[in-house]
Design brief:
The complex is a heterotrimer. By secondary structure, chain A is α/β, with parallel strands linked by helices. Chain A folds into four domains: 173 residues, Dimethylsulfoxide Reductase, domain 2 (3-Layer(aba) Sandwich), CATH 3.40.228; 129 residues, Rossmann fold, CATH 3.40.50; 64 residues, Rossmann fold (3-Layer(aba) Sandwich), CATH 3.40.50; 112 residues, Barwin-like endoglucanases. In chain A, strands 14-18-15-17-16-21 form a six-stranded mixed barrel. A five-stranded parallel beta sheet of chain A has the order 3-2-1-5-6, sandwiched between helices. Chain A has a three-stranded parallel beta sheet with strand order 7-8-9, with no helix packed on it. In chain A, strand 19 and strand 20 form a beta hairpin. Chain A is globular and about 65 Å long. By secondary structure, chain B is of the alpha/beta class. Chain B folds into four domains: 105 residues, Ubiquitin-like (UB roll) (Roll), CATH 3.10.20; 216 residues, Rossmann fold (3-Layer(aba) Sandwich); 82 residues, NADH-ubiquinone oxidoreductase 51kDa subunit, iron-sulphur binding domain (de novo design (two linked rop proteins), Up-down Bundle); 57 residues, Alpha-Beta Plaits (2-Layer Sandwich), CATH 3.30.70. In chain B, helix 4 packs across helix 7. Chain B is elongated, with a radius of gyration of 26 Å. Chain C is α+β, with helices and mostly antiparallel strands. Chain C is built from eight helices and 16 strands. In chain C, strands 2-1-5-3-4 form a five-stranded mixed beta sheet, with helices on both faces. In chain C, strands 10-11-12 form a three-stranded antiparallel beta sheet. Chain C has a two-stranded antiparallel sheet with strand order 6-9. Chain C is elongated. The chains are: A alpha/beta, B alpha/beta, C alpha+beta. At the A-C interface, helix 3, helix 11, helix 13, strand 7 and strand 8 of A face helix 4, strand 10, strand 11, helix 6 and strand 13 of C.
């Protein structure tokens, strides 16, 4: 997030696009609802599904899945043509406006309506409301990114926010809401194929050498493979060994049949987890790790706040904290890793990571600090891009709408979109063991619009088979107008109805994110 | 009573019921057709509005109303002009004028009568208030149990709009004001101003703490003026005829007239409008025609269920805000219940606290739990389970509940208890100490006793007694066993010798 | 900021901000006024009336939680009238329900109990009459015993104003008033999201954690502050530990950002996995196609041997590593260091995109 969670509550307008935040980040969802109910903030929701937030919204734009760029361009077209954009901001802080203006000019409300199904009039109202609001925060999530056009979507959001001068101010910004406790931290820590900590590039010699000196070994310069590419590599035989720490690609990755065959082809697979997951079952060695309640360390939340994790109970049996396991393994490889504990590891991180330079364990004892925090006397940063963007001027990207990789056709006439529900988390390994959450949501549901359900001849509570070009799953139908006509929604928490058997592994060319939000399926009574 | 002579049918002014009244709020009652705006206009209707809108500034309207001495007729008696002034001084471009027509006191129908018989008077008053404070929208919060009032109001509103007396650009002055009716669901507490506003907001009608006062933050947090029906119905005439005219009747601090719903043990019941300061005796004996059956006046409950009783010794008290409060009652919205000597004062207190505890919204502890416990104690006393110390506990509770409740309901609910203890403590003590209900009302305390002198020993009582409590030897005086007697009274009824009596 | 004003509380002249309430000004100056329905960050409703004080020239006692201070105000928090009222109110509350501390989960952490003790009430002057509601045990997360409810409305405000789930409200009126979801349904049959905010908000034992029942009394629990392991909000929470087990999860409003004490169903009620019997306890090694238990040494050896061999034969880029968005910063740091410095490849990624 460019901005902070607490700013949401006190902003003038919130635009939530591609985020079902009340279910995925309920506490942020509560802040959005509180902003609306208690502080009179306006809310625009752009989402194909009738998510809970639409009930709090002033305007709800119900676009067809995968048409976000068209909608965003449409908003910008209206804002520019009605001269509602922030001329001073655009002139002083951005570049590329002329290109943008030219591209979005084609996205007239009528044209956008044709592509997205969003009524021209509503689009106009939303454009005016956003542009004329004082402070306005855009919230988005996987509904934006898990598309082949994911990068385009995100850039379009940035275009809109910059156009109206709403980045770099308190209560504004472009705010991706992170779905996992430490996905921000994992990225910050360089658990990515092309960067070290704080996005220092492996390909940049100077940065590589800094780490090389610190770690006392030469380091590879060539960026590595992404998760989905690794799976392809395993299938093709270029990847022979794999070490998986705390992930369950056997449920979380797209096109699961392919994932399974890839993992089975490996010469050697190590899985380190707290449970014998679907992935661990395929491993040659399984290492038992401690969970969050059994170890010390830090997580970095979606607003870049680094916070303490503390040991509350002992790990079961001989299970060890992941950091201990890694040091043990490194030592076995003859590379000495000696740390008294996570605090000492953090000291090493502080020394190599400018944005984490001042975030020491003792400083965050009482309250987490938001990076960038370059030095021990720096208070941390509530919102980014206050005076300038990372690259200097904010760059507008002129982007055209592209269709999703796979659209419904005669054979697979419905569009499947996936996501989470409030009561479960990711692949369900943890939440499904809880009595309470399972009581509230015991099984996977296929949410389908009443019109479609009628046509197919299915009703709520009946089992249905959902199939795509890649696989088929069986689950219970929930007939609901939450799903628009032509769209079915499923969550990915249940291995019994593993929705990623159906999803399309087509990737966004830049971010390499699979298109979980759109694929073509067929639904039949089971 | 004199035989009326043929050809000398008395005029209204010769009939005491009418002679002692002074009709201002009720001036059009029964005289005009409430469904015809022309008839209202013919009786100077909307002239006050015209004057206020064309000849007066908002400040002048407020000045006039303040000078008239008009005080809120809903019960609290807050000076209306002052209320308007506070609201007019509140910042904000959106303000509301609200009319409280949620007449909840049992037996009270002053507002209903005005709404049904003269709805335009209320509308006119509201437009003038709106002009005074700068409001452009209003609500009449009327209980749904008043369908005829709502019907008449709807007709009146439509006619007023049609005539350009409501809506945009009233009388071409550029002033806009419109209003709608909001139907209440009959909760007594919704007569409390903040609860009423909460109810209009679509929420559960529960009072809010003040401050902020409605004049600053009322309906939807906007400055609002809330007056009751009778208050609004007085406004137009004040504007039209002037403050001095209005203040020409009444007492020093209570000006004008007040409508009472006279009811109970009195010959003439109904709505009466009298100048402030009229004595209770005049109302009860002259206008009300006295107590039926030659019974004695015991007390009058003034101010509805949360008012207080005024005993015979104060019959000559002037009925005005100050005097009534001094005597431990309240003016309230004008409920006036006359009670004769057959009424048990503890039972009366129990009746009123029962109403209040039932109507408590349940929000604040003293009212919710306190009124319930006071009811419990009073019920105990009427059932002969009273204990030494109950009176003191009731008094302590009453003071604390008055002192610490959130809204007017709780703050006034103990009034009947305090005033009845104040004037009739001996009756309470008779119940508690002697196990006796002096009025003979409390069933559990009745004692059926045989007068041995009169009893012939006929045995009828023993024969009819369902619990065999009455018994005795033939030809010998009988006795009634109090432990088994269920106080059904059949023995007394059947005794031919009046030998059985009850105390 | 507006200028400070002077007021007098219990004979002490203190300064206050004009937008403060009497209660806030008193607290800021270390003057104790008891409260019950007051709950920070929600509307001050003035419902319980426990916080009444005397204000010079006021017609009645004044609820200090909602009365703003004004210049020259003279307040007394400790007069007989105040104490009598507080005592009466607490007696009334005590007598209104089943406040039996022997079997109450909140014993030792109950605000009604604290009030009774502070006011020194031996027993109420009114007969104790519990309303006789059935205890709601229809879900495994939250137990509601409305016989212990003091109708302070904190749960209602927590639900509507903090979590804005808009599930709870009052129903009925007077002494029959109740809190709960619409149509008097139980939680599980309602739209309730089980965020548990109402449980944290309840000052008495009316709304409690089902799983914590008999799991440890307040003074036996150790609260360990940590960061939630679920979504990216990073909620700060307290794991309540008794005898090495997590008994319940509570929010703590003093922790401030990012969640100000609020949690969701997952952070609150989905920690069962920590103590689940299926947790892996020992390393497993595949022998004859079966995963069998092994020592750490055996496991490390096998990994070192096999990955070294692959590296030798196919180069370091034939090995890939999945770091984890579930693990700590320190662990992710070490993991990528391991892949880059020890294995010698940049093939390290995690499921950020999924």
């Amino acid at each position: 997030m460019t901005n902070s969670i607490e700013e949401i509550e006190h902003t003038d307008l919130i635009l939530a696009i591609g985020t079902n935040t009340t279910e995925n980040h309920p506490v942020i969802g509560a802040k959005v609802k509180k902003a609306v109910r208690s502080h009179g903030a306006k809310l625009i929701v752009i989402d194909p599904r009738d998510i809970a937030l639409t009930g709090y919204a002033d305007i709800w734009l119900r676009q067809r899945p995968g048409t976000d760029v068209a909608v965003l361009n449409g908003l910008m077209q209206i804002i520019i043509s009605e001269d509602l954009y922030d001329r001073d901001y655009v002139a002083a802080r951005t570049e590329g406006f002329a290109e943008l203006k030219k591209t979005v000019a084609r996205y007239t409300p009528e044209y956008v309506e044709k592509i997205s199904g969003v009524k021209a009039e509503d689009l106009g109202r939303a454009a005016r409301m956003y542009a004329t609001a004082g402070k306005a925060a855009i919230l988005y999530c996987m509904g934006m990114t898990q598309h082949v056009s994911g990068t385009d979507n995100v850039k379009s959001i940035a275009n809109l926010a910059m156009l109206c001068g709403k980045v770099g101010i308190e209560g504004g910004g472009v705010n991706p809401l992170r779905g996992q406790n430490n996905v921000q931290g994992a990225c910050d820590m360089g658990a990515l194929p092309d960067v070290f900590t704080a996005y220092q590039k492996v390909a940049v010699a100077e940065q590589r050498e800094k780490f090389s000196r610190a770690w006392g070994v030469p380091l590879p310069a060539k960026p590595g493979l992404t998760v989905v590419e690794m799976m392809h590599g395993a299938t093709e035989g270029t990847i022979r060994g794999m070490y998986i720490m705390g992930e369950n690609p056997m449920l979380s990755d797209p096109d699961l049949s392919h994932v399974e065959s890839a993992l089975r082809k490996l010469d050697f697979l190590v899985v380190q987890d707290i449970f014998l997951t679907e992935t661990a079952k395929l491993a040659h060695v399984v290492l038992p790790s401690a969970c969050f309640a059994e170890k010390e360390g830090t997580f970095t939340n979606t607003e870049r706040r680094v916070q303490r994790v503390r040991k509350a109970v002992s790990a079961p049996g001989e299970a060890r904290a992941d950091w201990e396991i890694i040091t043990g393994l490194a030592n076995r490889f003859g590379y000495p890793m000696q740390y008294a504990g996570p605090a000492q590891i953090m000291e090493e991180i502080n020394s190599l990571t400018p944005s984490y330079g001042g975030i020491t364990c003792s400083r965050i004892e009482k309250e987490g600090i938001q990076w960038p925090c370059p030095s021990p006397d720096h208070p941390g940063t509530k919102f980014l891009h206050g005076d300038k963007f990372t690259r200097g001027l904010g760059l507008f990207h002129a982007i055209d709408y592209r269709e999703p990789a796979e659209l419904p056709d005669d054979e697979y006439p419905l569009l499947l979109t996936t996501g989470r529900v409030l009561y479960h988390y990711h692949t369900g390994t943890m939440t499904r063991l809880a009595k309470g959450t399972s009581e509230r949501c015991p099984e996977s549901l296929v949410e389908i619009n009443p019109q479609d359900a009628d046509r197919i001849g299915i009703e709520s509570g009946k089992m249905v088979v959902v199939s795509s070009r890649r696989g088929r799953v069986t689950a219970k139908a929930a007939v609901t107008s939450r799903s628009p006509e032509g769209v079915v929604f499923m969550n990915f928490h249940f291995r019994e109805a593993a929705v990623n058997l159906l999803t399309n592994p087509a990737l966004d060319p830049i971010a390499k994110i699979p298109e979980y939000k759109v694929c073509a399926v067929r639904v039949e009574a089971a | 009573m004199e035989e009326p002579m043929i050809g000398s049918i008395p005029t209204m002014q010769e009939i005491p019921f009418f002679a002692h009244q002074k009709l201002r709020v009720l001036r059009n009652r029964g005289i005009i057709d409430p469904g015809k705006i022309e008839e209202y206009i013919a009786r100077d209707g909307y002239l006050g509005l015209a004057k206020a809108l064309t000849e007066m500034t908002p400040a002048e309207i407020i000045k006039e109303v303040t000078a008239s001495g008009l005080r809120g007729r809903g019960g609290a008696g807050f000076p209306t002009g002052l209320k308007w002034q506070f609201c007019s001084q509140s910042k904000g471009d959106v303000k509301y004028v609200l009319c409280n027509a949620d007449e909840g006191d049992p037996g009270a129908f002053m507002d209903r009568s005005v709404l049904e018989a003269d709805p335009h008077a209320v509308l006119e008053g509201m437009v003038i208030a709106a002009r005074a404070i700068g409001a452009h929208y209003g609500y009449i919060y009327c209980r749904a149990e008043y369908p005829l009032a709502i019907h008449q109001l709807n007709i009146a509103i439509a006619q007023a709009r049609e005539c350009g007396l409501l809506g945009k650009d009233i009388l071409g002055t550029g002033f806009d004001f419109d209003l709608e009716i909001y139907q209440g669901a009959g909760a007594f507490v919704c007569g409390e101003e903040t609860a009423l506003m909460t109810s209009i907001e679509g929420k559960r009608g529960m009072p809010r703490p003040r401050p902020p006062f409605p004049a600053v933050a009322g309906l939807w947090g906007k400055p609002s003026v809330l007056n009751n029906v009778e208050t609004f119905a007085s406004v137009a005439q004040i504007v039209l005829k002037g403050a001095a005219w209005y203040a020409s009747v009444g007492t020093e601090k209570s000006k004008g007239t007040k409508v009472f719903a006279l009811t109970g043990d009195v010959n003439n019941v109904g709505l009466v409008e009298v100048p402030m300061g009229t004595t209770l005796r005049t109302i009860v004996y002259e206008i009300g025609g006295g107590i039926p059956g030659g019974k004695k006046f015991k007390a009058a409950q003034l101010g509805g269920p949360s008012g207080g009783c005024i005993p015979a010794e104060h019959l000559d008290a002037s009925v005005d805000y100050e005097k009534v409060a001094e005597l431990g009652a309240i003016m309230g919205s004008g409920g006036l219940i006359v009670m004769n000597e057959d009424k048990c004062i503890v039972d009366i207190a129990r009746f009123f606290i029962d109403f209040c505890q039932d109507e408590s919204c349940g929000k604040c502890t003293p009212c919710r739990e306190g009124t319930k416990r006071m009811l419990q104690i009073l019920t105990g006393i009427t059932e002969g389970k009273g204990r030494e110390g109950d009176i003191e506990l009731l008094q302590e509770m009453a003071v604390i509940i008055k002192n610490s409740s959130l809204c007017g309901l709780g703050q006034t609910a103990p009034n009947p208890i305090l005033s009845t203890i104040r004037y009739f403590r001996d009756e309470y003590e008779a119940h508690i100490r002697e196990g006796r209900c002096p009025a003979g009302v409390c069933t559990a305390l009745k004692r059926y006793t045989v007068d041995a002198e009169k009893c012939t020993g006929c045995g009828v009582c023993a024969k009819v007694c369902p619990t065999k409590a009455a018994k005795g030897e033939k030809k010998q005086p009988h006795e009634i066993d109090q432990a088994t007697c269920i106080k059904c009274g059949v023995c007394m009824e059947k005794c031919k010798f009046e030998a059985i009596f009850v105390n | 900021m507006e200028e400070k004003i002077r007021i007098t509380i219990d004979g002490r002249e203190v300064t206050a901000n004009p937008e403060q309430t009497i209660l806030e000004a008193a607290r800021e100056n270390g003057i104790f006024i008891p409260t019950l329905c007051q709950y920070a960050d929600t509307t001050n409703v003035g419902a319980c009336r426990v916080c009444v004080v005397e204000v010079e020239k006021a017609r009645t006692l004044v609820a200090s939680c909602c009365m703003p201070v004004s210049a020259g105000m003279v307040v007394r928090t400790d007069t007989k009238a105040v104490r009598d009222a507080q005592r009466m109110i607490v007696e009334l509350l005590w007598a209104s329900g089943d406040h039996n501390c022997l079997v109450c989960e909140k014993n030792g952490n109950c605000e009604l109990q604290d009030l009774v003790y502070w006011l020194g009430i031996e027993k109420p002057r009114f007969p104790i009459e519990s309303p006789g509601y059935e205890i709601e045990k229809t879900n495994s997360m939250i137990v509601r015993d409305l016989n212990k409810c003091v109708l302070c409305g904190r749960c209602v405000r927590a639900c509507n104003e903090i979590q804005v789930n808009e599930v709870l409200d009052f129903s009925l009126r007077g002494s029959r008033a109740k809190v709960g979801p619409a149509f008097d349904s139980d939680y599980i049959a309602s739209e309730c999201y089980f965020c548990g905010e109402c449980v944290d908000a309840c000052p008495v034992g009316a709304i409690t954690f089902a799983q914590a029942r008999f799991g440890g009394r307040p003074w036996e629990l150790e609260k360990v502050r940590t960061t939630c392991t679920y979504c990216g909000v990073g909620c700060q929470l307290d794991l309540n530990i008794n005898k090495g087990k997590i008994v319940k999860v509570t929010g703590n409003r003093d922790y401030g950002p990012p969640n100000q004490g609020s949690l969701c169903i997952k952070g609150r009620f989905a920690m069962d996995f920590v103590q689940h019997p299926d947790r892996l306890q020992r390393p497993l090694i595949r022998k004859n196609g079966e995963l069998t238990e092994a020592t750490w040494e055996e496991a490390y050896d096998l990994i070192a041997r096999n990955l070294s061999a692959i590296k030798e034969e196919h180069g370091p880029d034939s090995i890939a590593g999945f770091a984890s968005a579930r693990c700590t910063n320190e662990e992710n740091y070490l993991f990528q260091k391991f892949m880059r410095a020890v294995i010698g490849t940049n093939n390290v990624d995690h499921c950020a995109r999924l």
